[in-house]
Amino acid sequence: MLEIENFIKFKQRDDKEGYVYVFSIKAKKLLEHSNVEIVQRNSPGIQRVLVPSRVKKVTSFFDEMGNETNIIPNSIVVSIEKDPIVESENELKFECSENEKFIDIIDGQHRLEGIAKSENELNILVSAFIRPTPTEKAFQFVVINNKSHKVPTTHVKSLLANYQGIDNSLLGTKLNKAGISFSHIPDIDLVDTGVDSPLKDLIKWQNNEEGIIPINALENSFWYIVDKVPEAKEDDSIKRDILYQIWKAVKEHFSTIWENREINHLFEKAPFIVLTSVLVDYAFTYCDILSDLEDSDISIMDEDVFYKSTKMYLKNFPASFWTSEWTKKGLDTNAGRILIKNSISQIKSNIRNKETDMLKDVVVLT
Asked: What count of other Cβ atoms lies within 10 Å of the Cβ of residue 277?
């Protein structure tokens, strides 16, 4: 039995039929009975594939230190696919078995999953249709996701400027912690200051003159990710999550040289861009390999795919490559980047061939 108390039965048009029920419920309880129908041929499904990184961002929005007061006040939209057995002035009851899936998510699947996975018992606000037609569900999904207007950048700039004097940048800090990026709170700032960033305090830009990774190395890497991963075009947090996964694995593998600031090509512009691009490309190969081995589709957007694929690619890769004296100079050109990429490929070949000298025939060293 699913019981809902203190709901509001809302009718927007007095002269038309049709109600929406608005209520609060424990997110975990709602998830137990929820179903997400994905768009596919000959199916009435309407939803996009769940993106684990977006779910993780929602959970972090509530659970990370400093986010204790964060809330999401707007409701998710669902359709309840059965009539209530009881509808009184302040109570709805639906007859159902444990974990029976009879509530379809129209909008807000990432919010629901993320809130339900919080370490806290959080409530979620819901707007529910009772047994709408498949056409009505599809209509609501399209309208919700295509009719919203983004707040103009000029408006947000003015708002943040006004709040600078009111709350001493508390608003900007909260937005930063929530992973929200505007042109004046750029991705660069989030990468350089975010608590979950493996590149924290390493980006060299106007806010961190002590950093060592050139800002355009980061920008070029983001452009490459967005070009290769369509989902990253729709959501800035996805491109950052991909970069974080890759460089978390890089940092772990090359931990012995991570603090080396004298000779470390890892943090130079061209090598940084090339390594990122190589590892983005390999993630797709990794998915194909696993899909064949497991006889099931492995998606590039599955959780931690870029982290796992990077760990696999870097297995036995020598840290000494990055700290050796490179004889080739002026590598920040198309031709130079090809040399770096060929050098990485040569090392991978040496590893496969079990060469004693893993840096044998590496072009940037000869």
From this structure: 19
Provide the residue ranges of all domains of the chain, joining segments of one domain with +: 2-146, 150-179, 186-365
Which amino acid would we find at residue 228? K
At 352 the three-state DSSP class reads helix
Strand partners, 103: 34, 80
* Secondary structure of residue 141 in the 3-state scheme: helix
Helix (H, G, I), strand (E, B) or coil at 126: strand
Q: How many residues does the structure list for the chain?
A: 366
Strand order in the sheet with 103-107: 8-10, 20-26, 123-130, 76-80, 103-107, 34-35
Tokens read off for 211: 């950093």
DSSP code string of 286-347: HHHHHHHHHTS---TTSTTHHHHHHHHHTTT--THHHHSPPS-----SHHHHHHHHHHHHHH
Question: What is this structure's pTM?
Answer: 0.63
How far apart are the C-alpha atoms of 223 and 16, rounded to whole Å? 49
Query: What secondary structure does DSSP assign to 48-86, as a single string?
Result: PPP-HHHHHHHHHHHHSTT-TT----SPEEEEE-S--SE
Is residue 321 a contact partner of residue 347, using CB atoms and an 8 Å limit? yes
> Each residue of 78-110: pLDDT tens digit?
999 998 888 887 888 889 888 889 999 988 889
Question: pLDDT per residue over 205-250, tens digit each?
Answer: 877 888 999 989 999 999 999 999 988 887 778 899 999 999 999 9
Three-state DSSP class for residue 2: strand
CB neighbours of residue 49 within 10 Å: 13
Q: Which residues have C-beta within 8 Å of that of residue 94, sequence separation ≥ 6?
A: 1, 2, 3, 4, 80, 82, 84, 85, 102
